[in-house]
Structures are given as structure tokens and as C-alpha cells.
Amino acid sequence: MTRVLIASLLVVIAACAHGADEFREGEHYQLVAKPLSVKSPDKIEVVELFWYGCPHCFHFEPLLKAWLKTKPGDVEFRRIPALFAENWVPHARAFFAAEALGALEEFHSPLFRAIHEDDKKIMDEESLIAFAASVGVSSSSFSEAYAGFAIDGKVKQAMAYTRDSGITGVPSVIVNGKYRTGAQMAGGQDKVMDVVDFLIEKERAK
Question: Can you say whether residue 35 is alpha, beta or left, with left for phi > 0 and alpha for psi between -120 and 50 degrees?
Fold first, then answer.
């Protein structure tokens, strides 16, 4: 009996040790070279970098939405459109315009579906304004926000964040401005938020 108990205890200890080492720096996540500023310093910030034209980002959306349903109260989540190329700018401006109008719920997921399920070419200002109108967002308000100086500033900030985060593709997730991960590092899209949860716990323990 004693031997059985000892053997069982060793299994539990080994399992716990494995869990603690499940995700490793340099393999499943990387350190951001220079920590990025966070919007809410009193919370642990999680940022998704994405592009509407990216099929991987579209397929990641359901996994992210499921995670958001159980997001801890001490975690602040936000999205930032990544900017790797000039032709990504219209989508970034559109995201920030919808955000400024409080219309992301109507705009964000439907735009992903329109591009990747309906195969619609929505890549420029005109088509984005038309799409916004099709989901119930005022075309005049959207057009004004899209072209506004405030959006210019947001786009510049997104460009800087993309560059300074050190990401090389999307979707990518930054945790508390210190760590970055993505599907390739995590071992698949279904593992990304597990790595994120691990990093949240890592920050929470500090």
C-alpha cells in the first residue's frame, strides 16, 4: 500500500512539474525586446494583432471569442490592427473608425466573414464605407471618422506597436507588453490562448 501511495504521489509531482514547464521562453513565447506601454497599468493587458485580410486571423476569431467569455477580471483585452504593408492601412483605418463610433460589434466579425466566407473584395476606403453602411453604420459618420486626424494618430501608433512588438506575422498576441506568442510558437492556433493564460499567471505571480 505504501509503495502504491508513493508511486501515486510521484506521478502527481511529475504532472505538476510538467505543467509548470509546459510553455517555455524561446519555444512557445518570446520576450519583447523593449517592453511596450500598456493602456491600463493596474491590469494585465492582452493585445491581439490582426489583419482583416488574413485567413489565419479569421479562423482564430472563434477561439479568441471563446476565451473572452471567461476572461478574468484583472485582464484588459484590446485589439490593434497590425500594419506590415501600405495596403493594410485601409483596414486599420476602418477598424479605428468603427471603434470611434462604438460600432465594432456590428463591424468587426461581419467584415471578417464578408472577406473570407463571401469572398468580397473590401480593401479600399470606398468599399469599406459601403460595407459599414451595409451593417447599419452611418456611411457619413463612418466616412468622416475614417478620414479624421484622430485616425491618423491611431494608425501611426499601430505602426509603431507592430514594429516594436517584434512580431513577424498575424495573428499574434502580446501579454502585458512583455511577451509575444502566436500559432507557430504555441504549437497551433488552439494552443495560443493556453500560452496566454500561462503568461497571465506568470505576470499575476509577480
Answer: beta
